[in-house]
C-alpha cells in the first residue's frame, strides 16, 4: 500500500499492472488470516515467568514481538506469543542503524505496555536486538549523539535498564519475519527455539561493532579560534571620563614618541570619494589638518586657517565635545558648534553635539517636562440618568468681590454649585472664607435645590484670594465641612491639591459666570443687594445656555438647556405641549408632568450624552510613574525659580491602570500631587557623561521650559 501511495495515483484512478499484481497478492494474504488459529490461553502454570521482546528492522519496515517464557518445575520450558507490532519505514530515506533504533524503541514500548496491562509478575525482562550498533548506543551517554539518536536513547533509558538488553543473531530473531515478505510463520507464532534451552546456550555478544557506522551519529566537536589584531590607539580612550585628564595623558605619550623618532611633515592625500577630499587634507605634527583656501589670510592664526580634523564617532572626540558643551554653559547646539569650529573640524559635528547633549544629565533634568496621563473615564455623577438635578454637585469659590456697606467696603465671595449631570449652576454669596460662612451657603443651597448625594470640591487651595487668609482658613474649612457632610449623610469627595484640571466641571462654569457678570456689573463696589441680584441673573443666563447643537430648522425643537430640567423651558416663559385648563384630575396632571420630565431626559440621553464620549485631549496612555522615581514639582503658583524636588513614595492607580495621583517625599514634608504637575527626572545615565561636582538631586536646576507652566493652565 505504501508503494501504491508513493506512485501518486488518485483514489479514482486505475492501478498500474505491477501495482495491481502486488495488490492482488496482498488481498490473498489477507484472506488467509481467516485460517489462522492462535491459542488464547498462555498456560503459564509456573512460578518462574520471563518476558522476552524482540525487535528488528529492514529498509522496508521495522517490528517487535513479545513472548512469555515459563520454566515449569520439571525443567521444561513453555513459550507463548503475547503481542506483536510492525511499522512501515518512513518515506524519508533513513539509515539501517536508525531503523534498528526505532525497532528497539518499539520493542521497549511494547514490553512496558504488556507489563502494565497484564499484571503478571515476571521474574525478569529481556529485550533482544540484532544490531550491535544500537546496543553500543544504548550503553553510551545519549548526550554524545545527534538529536535524532539522543532523544530516542533518552526514552530508552527511562523505560528500560541497560542490563536488560541482549544481542541476538538475525537468523534467530523472530521479529525479522515481520520485516520481510518471506516470513517464517511457525517461528513467529511459537517463538525462537533457543529460548527452549538453558540460558548458557543463548546467543552471546562478542562486542564487535562497525566503528565507522557508530561514529556517524556522534555530535561533531567545534573549536572556535579567535584571532585578534591590535589596530587601535595605544591609549584606550574609553577608560577616561574627563577631557582634561585624557589630554594630559596624550601629551606625555606624544612627548615620549617624539624623542624616539625623527620629525617629518609630509603632505597627505585623501582617497577618491572621501568626504575629506574637498578639504585638501595635510599632515602636520602628526595631526590631520584642513588645507583649505585660507593660507594667505594675514589676520587668522595657524589653528584658525588649518583646524585639526577629528572623527565625531570617536570616544575621545565626544569627550572633547562634552568639554566644550560644559564650557558653553550647556547652551544650545549651534552655540557649541560655533565654539568648536574655531579650532577643530569634526566630521558629523552636529549629530555628535546633539548626542552629547542628549546624554548630559543636567540637560536632561532641565528639559524634563510633566507628562499628562490619558484622560480618565467620566465619574458616575456625570452620567446619572433620571435623577433629580443637583443630586451630584460640584462646589467652588471665586472672588473676592468688593461691596459697599455704608461708607466702607467689604469683601464677598461667590459660591458656585453646579449639577454634574445637567450642568446647571446655583449661586450663593459668602461673606467670608470661614467654615461657618461656607456651611451657611451650603444650607441655603440645600433649602432651594435639595440635599445632594455626592458633593465634589477641591482641596481648598483653589480659592482666589489672599494667601494669608486662605492658609488660616483652609484647615478649618476642611474639618467643619467634613463634619457637616457626615451629619447630613452627604458623600464629600475632594480632588488632589493643585489639580484644577480634575475640577474642570466647575472651573469652566466659574469663567462663564464671570463673563456674564462682567456684562452687568458696571460699578466696582456695588451694594450687597445689587451683587446678589446680579449673581442670580448671571446664574439664569448660564442656565439658559444650550447643551447641544442649535438647529436652525423651524421643525426642530429648541436646544436642550439646564433650565429645561429646572424650569421646564429654556427661558421659563412657556411650556411645551398643550394642557386643558378644565382638567381637574390630579392623576392626569401628574402624568403630564412626568411625561414632560421624561421627554427632557430622553433628549439628554439622545443629544447630550453622546457628546461626552470623545476625549478632546490626553488621548494616549503614558508610562506610569513608579514608586522611587525622582520628580520635580512644576507648580505655577510657586515663587519664581522655585522647583522643589522629591521622591515618589506611593502611587494611586485608577481603574484603567493609569497613575494620576502620587504621594511625594520632599525636604519639607510629604505632599500629594497630580502627575500632571510632576516632571520625572532621569535616574540612569551613562557614567562617562555624568557631570562633576554632585549627583542628580543635588545639582543646580534651572526651571524647565515655559511651556510647562503654560500647559498646566
TrEMBL record:
Extract one GO molecular function annotation from the record: nucleic acid binding
Which interval of the chain is the signal sequence?
none
Q: Which residues form the Integrase catalytic domain?
A: 385-570
Which one GO biological process term can you cite for this protein?
Answer: DNA integration
Q: Which InterPro entries match?
A: DUF5641, Integrase_cat-core, Integrase_H2C2, Retrotrans_Pao, RNaseH-like_sf, RNaseH_sf
Q: Could you tell me the superkingdom of the organism this chain comes from?
A: Eukaryota
Q: Kindly give the PROSITE patterns that the UniProt entry links to this protein.
A: INTEGRASE
- Protein name (database record): Integrase catalytic domain-containing protein
- Source organism per entry reads Eumeta variegata (Bagworm moth)
Amino acid at each position: 500500500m505504501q508503494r501504491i501511495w508513493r506512485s501518486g495515483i488518485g483514489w479514482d484512478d486505475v492501478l498500474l499492472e505491477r501495482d495491481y499484481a502486488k495488490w492482488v497478492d496482498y488481498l490473498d494474504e489477507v484472506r488467509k488470516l481467516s485460517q489462522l488459529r492462535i491459542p488464547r490461553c498462555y498456560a503459564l502454570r509456573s512460578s518462574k515467568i520471563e518476558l522476552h521482546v524482540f525487535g528488528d528492522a529492514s529498509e522496508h519496515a521495522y517490528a517487535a514481538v513479545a513472548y512469555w517464557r515459563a520454566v515449569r518445575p520439571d525443567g521444561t520450558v513453555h513459550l507463548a506469543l503475547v503481542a506483536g507490532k510492525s511499522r512501515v519505514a518512513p518515506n524519508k530515506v533513513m539509515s539501517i542503524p536508525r531503523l534498528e533504533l526505532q525497532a528497539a524503541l518499539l520493542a521497549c514500548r511494547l514490553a512496558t505496555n504488556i507489563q502494565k496491562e497484564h499484571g503478571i509478575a515476571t521474574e525478569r525482562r529481556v529485550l533482544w536486538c540484532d544490531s550491535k550498533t544500537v546496543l553500543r548506543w544504548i550503553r553510551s551517554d545519549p548526550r554524545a549523539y545527534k538529536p535524532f539518536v539522543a532523544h530516542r536513547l533518552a526514552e530508552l533509558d527511562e523505560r528500560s535498564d541497560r542490563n536488560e538488553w541482549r544481542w541476538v543473531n538475525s537468523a534467530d530473531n523472530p521479529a525479522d519475519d515481520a520485516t520481510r515478505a518471506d516470513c517464517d510463520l511457525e517461528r513467529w507464532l511459537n517463538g525462537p527455539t533457543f529460548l527452549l534451552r538453558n540460558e548458557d546456550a543463548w546467543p552471546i555478544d562478542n562486542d564487535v561493532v562497525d566503528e565507522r557506522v557508530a561514529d556517524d551519529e556522534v555530535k561533531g566537536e567545534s573549536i572556535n579560534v579567535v584571532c585578534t589584531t591590535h589596530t587601535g590607539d595605544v591609549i584606550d580612550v574609553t577608560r577616561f571620563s574627563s577631557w582634561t585628564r585624557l589630554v594630559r595623558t596624550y601629551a606625555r605619550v606624544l612627548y615620549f614618541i617624539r624623542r624616539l623618532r625623527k620629525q617629518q611633515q609630509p603632505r597627505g592625500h585623501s582617497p577618491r570619494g572621501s568626504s575629506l577630499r574637498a578639504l585638501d587634507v595635510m599632515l602636520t605634527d602628526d595631526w590631520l589638518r584642513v588645507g583649505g583656501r585660507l593660507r594667505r589670510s594675514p589676520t587668522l592664526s595657524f589653528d584658525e586657517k588649518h583646524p585639526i580634523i577629528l572623527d565625531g564617532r570617536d570616544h575621545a572626540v565626544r569627550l572633547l565635545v562634552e568639554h566644550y558643551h560644559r564650557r558653553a554653559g550647556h547652551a544650545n547646539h549651534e552655540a557649541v558648534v560655533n565654539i568648536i569650529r574655531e579650532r577643530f573640524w569634526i566630521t558629523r559635528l552636529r549629530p555628535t553635539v546633539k548626542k552629547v547633549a542628549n546624554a548630559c544629565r543636567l540637560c536632561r533634568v532641565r528639559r524634563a517636562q510633566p507628562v499628562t496621563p490619558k484622560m480618565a473615564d467620566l465619574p458616575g455623577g456625570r452620567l446619572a440618568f433620571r435623577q433629580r438635578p443637583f443630586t451630584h454637585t460640584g462646589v467652588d469659590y471665586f472672588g473676592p468681590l468688593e461691596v459697599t456697606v455704608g461708607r466702607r467696603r467689604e469683601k464677598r465671595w461667590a459660591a458656585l454649585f453646579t449639577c454634574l449631570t445637567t450642568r446647571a449652576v446655583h449661586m450663593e454669596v459668602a461673606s467670608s472664607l470661614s467654615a461657618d460662612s461656607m456651611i451657611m451657603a451650603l444650607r441655603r443651597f440645600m433649602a432651594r435645590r435639595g440635599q445632594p448625594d455626592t458633593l465634589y470640591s477641591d482641596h481648598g487651595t483653589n480659592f482666589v484670594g489672599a494667601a494669608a487668609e486662605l492658609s488660616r482658613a483652609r484647615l478649618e474649612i476642611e474639618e467643619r465641612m467634613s463634619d457637616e457632610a457626615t451629619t447630613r449623610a452627604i458623600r464629600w469627595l475632594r480632588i488632589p491639591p493643585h489639580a484644577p484640571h480634575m475640577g474642570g466641571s466647575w472651573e469652566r462654569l466659574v469663567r462663564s459666570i464671570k463673563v456674564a457678570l462682567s456684562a452687568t456689573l458696571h460699578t466696582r463696589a456695588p451694594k450687597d443687594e445689587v451683587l446678589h441680584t446680579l449673581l442670580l441673573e448671571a446664574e439664569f443666563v448660564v442656565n439658559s445656555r444650550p447643551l447641544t447643537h442649535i438647529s436652525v430648522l423651524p421643525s426642530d425643537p429648541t436646544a436642550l438647556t439646564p433650565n429645561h430640567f429646572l424650569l421646564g423651558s429654556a427661558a421659563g416663559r412657556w411650556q411645551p405641549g398643550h394642557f386643558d385648563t378644565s382638567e381637574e384630575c390630579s392623576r392626569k396632571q401628574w402624568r403630564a408632568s412626568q411625561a414632560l420630565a421624561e421627554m427632557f431626559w430622553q433628549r439628554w440621553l439622545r443629544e447630550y450624552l453622546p457628546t461626552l464620549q470623545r476625549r478632546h485631549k490626553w488621548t494616549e496612555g503614558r508610562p506610569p510613574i513608579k514608586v522611587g522615581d525622582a520628580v520635580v514639582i512644576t507648580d505655577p503658583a510657586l515663587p519664581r525659580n522655585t522647583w522643589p524636588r522629591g521622591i515618589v513614595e506611593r502611587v494611586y492607580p485608577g481603574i484603567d491602570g493609569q497613575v494620576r495621583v502620587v504621594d511625594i517625599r520632599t525636604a519639607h514634608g510629604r505632599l500629594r500631587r497630580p502627575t500632571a504637575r510632576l516632571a520625572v527626572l532621569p535616574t540612569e545615565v551613562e557614567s562617562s557623561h555624568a557631570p562633576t561636582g554632585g549627583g542628580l538631586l543635588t545639582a543646580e536646576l534651572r526651571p524647565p521650559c515655559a511651556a510647562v507652566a503654560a500647559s498646566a493652565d
